[in-house]
Write a structure and sequence with these properties.
alpha/beta, Alpha/beta knot, 2 domains, two-stranded antiparallel sheet, 8 helices, elongated
């Protein structure tokens, strides 16, 4: 069976070929750039929002690469069927194990088999909740492969056979994994050095230290009768830092008790103390 090519949204890889290739291309390759490979029934949904703003600029500059693999090309018969009815009955359709297997084998060819170096992920509502720590872990790999589900999901045997890691964006249901995949990629790519340009902003933002982010303000100083807090206009950087930390702690304790407990545990504090917050 002739394997279909993937659709690349990043820079071309350097490969041996009998055909000459342009020396100057819009997206010349950067060796070792982090890469995302997405198995999907809707490859044209990519890069989507990932092609905009800083992630889009980084994609164009080759700081990361994106390849989509059209699952339909591995389908059976005239209509390239990829799904069938659930064993045991029930509503909906399930993506077939043999179809998925061919797509995964094609996509993973030549990639590291060590899942720590190259995770293989299925976007699933029953997966482990995606968080900033997971995004940081993914950003430190060589790349990852994402399987976007559709219909009722995928044949369980595929998950078991390939040791696929299931990841959830939250306790809600989407029509497919493409939106979740883009969110996961965006959260991961922005942690790659040079993508945002200011690494300090990444280190200081929400969740990096188990805290929600403090409130932000800018001009005008007075809007609709609401003024910027005086401390932020004082020019006293130490007091401003203290205010921002206190506000971050207050918001975290009020809105995310789970994060507050993790923060207190990390700093050896009593989560039920600091009643003034």
């Amino acid at each position: 069976m002739k394997q279909p090519p993937s659709k690349s949204h990043g820079r071309l890889s350097i490969k041996a070929t009998a055909q000459p290739r342009e020396l100057m291309t819009p997206r010349p390759d950067l060796k070792g750039a982090w890469a995302a490979k997405v198995i999907t029934l809707f490859p044209d949904a990519f890069p989507g929002v990932l092609g905009q703003s800083l992630t889009g600029k980084a994609l164009e500059e080759g700081l990361w690469k994106l390849d989509t693999i059209d699952l339909r090309q591995f389908g059976e018969g005239k209509h390239r069927n990829v799904d069938d009815t659930p064993a045991g009955g029930g509503a909906g359709m399930v993506l077939r194990a043999d179809i998925l297997g061919r797509a995964i084998e094609h996509t993973q060819r030549g990639l590291p088999t060590d899942r720590a170096r190259w995770p293989l992920i299925y976007l699933s509502p029953r997966g482990k909740p995606f968080d900033q720590a997971m995004a940081r872990r993914f950003s430190q790999t060589e790349g990852l492969t994402l399987l976007c589900g559709r219909f009722e999901g995928v044949d369980e045997r595929v998950i078991e056979h390939y040791g696929i890691e299931e990841v959830s964006l939250g306790d809600f249901i989407l029509t497919g994994g493409e939106i979740a995949a883009q969110a996961l990629i965006d959260a991961t790519v922005r942690l790659i050095p040079r993508v945002l340009g200011n690494q300090a902003s990444v280190e200081e933002e929400s969740f990096s230290a188990f805290l929600l982010e403090h409130p932000h303000y800018t001009k005008p100083a007075l809007w609709e009768g609401r003024a910027i807090p005086d401390i932020l206009l004082s020019g006293h950087h130490a007091k401003i830092a203290d205010w921002r930390r206190a506000e971050a702690e207050r918001l975290t304790k009020e809105r995310r008790p789970d994060l507050w407990r993790a923060y207190c545990e990390h700093h050896g504090r009593d989560p039920d103390g600091d009643q003034e917050l």
